[in-house]
Write the structure tokens for this entry.
Amino acid sequence: MGQESFKIVLLPGDGIGPEVIRAARHVIELAAAEAGISLSFEEHVFGGAATDETGFPLPEETLNACLRSDGILLGAVGGPQWDVCAREERPEYGLLALRKALGSYANLRPVTVPDFLADASPLRPSVVAGTDMLIVRELIGGIYFGEPRGRASDSAYNTLRYSKPEIARIAQVAFEWARRRNGSVVSIDKSNVLEVSILWRDVVSEIHQQAYSDVELSHMYVDNAAMQIVMNPRQFDVLLTGNMFGDILSDLTSTLVGSLGMLPSACLGGTVGLFEPVHGSAPDIAGMDKANPIGAIVSSAMLFEELNQPELATRIRRAVEQALLDGYRTADMLAEDSTEVGTKEMTNVIANRLSEVAA
Ligand code: IPM
Ligand code: MN
């Protein structure tokens, strides 16, 4: 301890991205300083902002900086002004290209609802309180990347394709996490309709039988899973999904905790870890000091877990929890008796609690 030093690349991106990244940087700079860990930051242009500046959403310089770093913290990408761009110039294309270039095939999206947050959900507190699930989403395959893809004059097409090795490696991640958590995996598919899902189910079952029979495995159709997540979220521990099902279900899980602004994520398995809040760029509130910085701040805690700094991660998580326990909320999370604060004040409230919660 005390001798560690890490190079972190910040990719603020678009919309509220820059605000939430500024918030996360402030918190991690303080937390690291208190823990005697030295951090260096490099900020690079990415997403729509990069398209405006360079013509590409993922400029080579940005990618190279990412590949040389110890971890990447990303804000958000996208906005209506880039919807008209060619595919390769769109911010979302840059994000997919970055995930692919890093080889980050495993996207971890944890969702927890402590009792004291249950009243922020539009669902009944008795339903959501105690939720503790982890979505393990395949991130660099499936219909997002399948070829052929394209558009003809009056039709358009995409390809959903998964190979056995692609399914096997993400299934392993899910089973490993289940072992470290509560020992169960629900694998999501649409095997009543799709060949890819039949293969998915077969491969997941095979990996389970070969190496993880201590973990409880069940399979669920994605449409049923959407309902079960809302009806009885506590039944889930690890949810294993393909790329698009995971994208959709992870937004749905945000209703459990009240706001998409709360959810963190980690993209792992590749050269360097990429950490990004689950939320989008929210152009409607960009620059207004309204964004919830917690998704980005807790993503930075996941980054430190990956850098083998669990104490630092715990300290950041506890500071966030204490700020929420003390009743501070951004507008997306307001509840009775809470104190409404903007992005900057929420960040300061969290930063101020870092030293109190020292592990
Ligand atoms: C997410 C986002 C991205 C995705 C978009 C911006 C490409 O929605 O990370 O959930 O679909 O993966
Ligand atoms: Mn999404």
DSSP finds twelve helices and 14 strands in the chain. The pocket of manganese (II) ion (ligand 2) is lined by residues 247, 251 (CB under 6 Å).
